[in-house]
Structures are given as structure tokens and as C-alpha cells.
């Protein structure tokens, strides 16, 4: 995990392995900031959708029980959202390095679209 101090806040960049481990232990809330279309086509099972255009740092839950980790397709949008969350007053926030593309490259499970039926289906990676 890499961390960057911004004022009195800490922005963490987690690897896919760190996110997957914390996710499996239910230690984090994983928030997908991609578009609804991207999410519908494929997403990490259980991740919440909060598209970047609708982001409002004031509406985020506290992190007393679970850390918030953002992710997007490549890590660019989630980094921007994490920085916006810090600007909104959060003092510790994280995002996943490499985004969903890195998650798939690491062969982690996700929900994809069965192209034959159009139905969602679990992909084991």
C-alpha cells in the first residue's frame, strides 16, 4: 500500500491483492465510480455503484467500521474521487491501483455479462 499525505489527510493506493484480501474479510466498502453502463456489463460482486458525475463527498458514510476504497476502470477516476473526498473533509480514504482492469488481469472473480443470453454471470477470473 502506498500512502500520500495531503494536508492532514491520508490518501492510500491499495493493490488488487490488498483490496481482494480486505474485501474477502468484509473489512472495506468497495465503491465503483464507473458509469452505470460499465457496471452493468461487468463489476466486482457486491461493490456499490456511485458514478463519478454523481459523487458528493458530503454524502459518504463514516469509516468507523469499514474503510472506503474506490475503484474505476484503470485507477484514474478513483484517484480523482479519492482526492475529492479529501477535499470534502475525509481524512483517510483509499482507491485501488489499476482499477477493474487490474482486478481482471489478476484473475479475481467478478460478475460479467453472458454474451449468449445477456444475463449476468459469475466469472472466476
What does this structure look like?
- By secondary structure, the chain is of the alpha/beta class.
- It is 27% helix and 29% strand.
- The two termini are 23 Å apart.
- The protein contains four helices and eight strands.
- The mean pLDDT is 94.
- It has one domain: Oxidized Rhodanese, domain 1, CATH 3.40.250.
- It is globular and about 50 Å long.
- Strands 1-2-6-5-3-4 form a six-stranded mixed β-sheet. Strands 7-8 form a two-stranded antiparallel sheet.
- One of its GO terms (molecular function) is thiosulfate-cyanide sulfurtransferase activity.
- This is Rhodanese-like domain-containing protein.
- It holds the Pfam family Rhodanese.
- InterPro entries: Rhodanese-like_dom (IPR001763), Rhodanese-like_dom_sf (IPR036873).
List the helices and strands and how they pair.
Blueprint: E1 2-6, E2 9-14, H1 16-24, E3 28-32, H2 36-41, E4 48-49, E5 67-71, H3 76-87, E6 92-96, H4 99-105, E7 110-113, E8 120-123
Parallel strand pairs: 2-6, 3-4, 3-5, 5-6
Antiparallel strand pairs: 1-2, 7-8
Protein name: Rhodanese-like domain-containing protein
Domain Rhodanese: 24-112
GO molecular function: thiosulfate-cyanide sulfurtransferase activity
Amino acid at each position: 500500500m502506498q500512502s500520500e499525505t495531503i494536508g492532514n489527510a491520508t490518501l492510500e493506493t491499495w493493490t488488487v491483492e490488498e483490496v481482494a484480501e480486505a474485501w474477502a474479510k468484509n473489512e472495506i466498502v468497495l465503491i465503483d465510480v464507473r458509469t452505470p453502463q460499465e457496471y452493468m456489463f461487468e463489476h466486482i460482486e457486491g461493490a456499490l455503484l456511485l458514478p463519478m458525475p454523481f459523487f458528493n463527498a458530503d454524502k459518504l458514510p463514516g469509516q468507523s467500521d469499514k474503510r472506503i476504497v474506490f475503484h474505476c476502470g484503470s485507477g484514474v477516476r478513483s484517484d480523482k474521487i479519492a482526492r475529492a473526498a479529501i477535499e470534502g473533509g475525509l481524512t483517510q480514504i483509499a482507491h485501488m491501483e489499476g482499477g477493474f482492469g487490474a482486478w481482471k488481469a489478476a484473475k479475481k472473480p467478478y460478475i460479467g455479462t453472458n454474451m449468449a443470453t445477456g444475463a449476468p454471470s459469475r466469472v472466476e477470473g
